[in-house]
Amino acid sequence: MTTTKAARELAETYFTAWEAGDFDTLRGLLAEDVDFVGALGTASGVEEALAGLKGLGQVLEKIDVQVRVAEGDEVITWFDLHTKVAAATPTVNWMHVDGGKITRIRVTFDPRALLAGFEKQG
User: Which of 30, 55, 64, 73 could be bridged to 80 by S-S, CB 3.0 to 4.6 A?
Assistant: First the structure.
């Protein structure tokens, strides 16, 4: 079992690295068999997860964390996702940490503004 402090620090590093486009650091945080389910898709394994993070990273401007709650090996982060294609999108990310790596990520938000913004980009 991961300590609450370690899980919280891992989540903080994850969001900082993603916002900075530091995918080498992100790779080191994710378990090889990480499982991702979100409003825009799913990913199985570190390569698919990184591809998804890189894809959204192309339009990512800022991650404005509102609150982060950690308990044991579970971390929930509520944040506003700022992108080049849509107004800030309230988003929640729930991750599970095991053995010092992120093994499961669940993300939910209303994707309509982002999808419309992607369509306008062509």
Answer: 64
